[in-house]
Amino acid sequence: MRRFRIRSGGVARSLVEVAYRPLLVTKSFMNKIVSPAQSWIRLAIDSLPSDLLVLRKTYPLGHLMCFQDYVAGPIQRDEALLLYALVKTVDPKTIVEFGFDRGHSAINFLKAMSSGSRLYSYDISDVSMRLSRKIHDKRFRFIFKSQTDFEYSDVDNRLVDLVFFDASHDFHLNVATFEKVKRCLSERALIIVHDTGAWYGKLKGLRTPEGYFVDGKARAGYIHRPDERRFVNYIRANMEGFDQIHLHSTSKFRHGLTVLQRNVDALPL
Ligand SMILES: C[S@@+](CC[C@H](N)C(=O)[O-])C[C@H]1O[C@@H](n2cnc3c(N)ncnc32)[C@H](O)[C@@H]1O
Question: Among 56, 71, 82, 142, which residue's Cα sits nearest to residue 106?
């Protein structure tokens, strides 16, 4: 897998931006003179390279080149795109991540987060701790602790708006962690649990130590992290206060995510 470039080369980028500047000016001028009725012209204009530059600035997604879809461990590229869009949309001010590993999900969160936000990422691996030091971003803090040792003071006593579970893949540890973190959630916090889906399609030898095919049939899907599924099922059965939605696929190789949210009062009108 390609490595992240935490700091990208500024000179080459500046040259490209200078080259495209006339196009940006042209586009801005065209946008002023084209009426909404002529929106088809706008569509044509939107395919200008200058638009790509604007999009690239608003949605810097170059880091996704370091992600893969056929991979076990980190979030998949498609999933990264989903989480990126979610964070852009909801703008959580405090994110807690359990499971940093090599930083794929952390970098993805940071790319989408706004300036006043914070990401607290937990991991127990020495390699993760070393890699985390390469992230020079004051919104980020690596916490070298087990997920079950979460404390409110770790996150500077900030209410948590988004929790990402992707660490131990152990039912009991997840439940214990959830019991702790639950008390620190903001009203409409999102809890996202990775690896709750089943793998479909050709697995090309990919297996997990605890995984199995549903009913022993390959076409029924391979449950790669049974404890993550048990965990969300446990919350469903024992904690009425949370709704959940599964973002899974049966047509492609997908780890799958489950999104939970506290079932609070109806939206005020
Ligand atoms: C699947 S990887 C995380 C991948 C990462 N979220 C990403 O998408 O790039 C799981 C990580 O959880 C860590 N881990 C395992 N048990 C843990 C625990 N009890 N507390 C915190 N981290 C743990 C492992 O060291 C490993 O780095």
Answer: 142
Quick check: 143 and 122 in contact, CB under 8 A?
yes
Domain with CATH 3.40.50.150 in the chain: 66-262
User: Which pLDDT tens digit goes with each residue over 166-211?
Assistant: 999 999 999 999 999 999 999 999 999 999 999 998 888 889 999 9
Q: How far is residue 105's CA from residue 120's CA, in Å, rounded to a whole number?
A: 12
- Region 66-262: CATH code: 3.40.50.150
Whole-prediction pTM value?
Answer: 0.85
Write the residue with the smallest CA distance to atom 22 of ligand 1: 123
Query: From the CB of 110, is ligand 1 less than 6 Å away?
Result: no
**C-alpha–C-alpha distance, residues 148 and 241, integer Å:** 22
Give 125 Cα–ligand 1 centroid separation in angstroms.
Answer: 8
Residue 32's CB is within 10 A of a number of other CB atoms, namely 7
Report which protein residue has its CA nearest ligand 1's atom 7. 74
Rounded to the nearest angstrom, the distance between the alpha carbon of 201 and the centre of ligand 1 is 26
What is the token pair recorded at 42? 């706008």
Q: Which of 141, 164, 132 is nearest to 6 (CA)?
A: 132
Q: Report the alpha-carbon distance of residue 214 to residue 207 in Å, rounded.
A: 14
